[in-house]
Amino acid sequence: MMVDAEGRILALAVVPTDVQDCDTLPALDRGKPLWPSLRLAVLDGVFRAKRCEKWCHFHGMRCEVVKKDPDQKGFVVPKRRWVVQRTFGWLSH
Hints:
2 helices, Transposase
């Protein structure tokens, strides 16, 4: 799912469950050109693969991977990841 900073859906792709998360970015290829002003991709930690960084650069975006702090204790809301999670919450409400 590609969302803006407020969580509005810009592009959505449904893929089979046997596709790994880091392999799903190409499914959003047709959505990115509709939003040329997008300049930053904030990705979950599973998107650390080089191909994810290449995908972002191909579409003219910087890539920021949100990682868990290795010293983290207890629950901490990851930076900006909550935006997509909130959108999923809206869809299932």
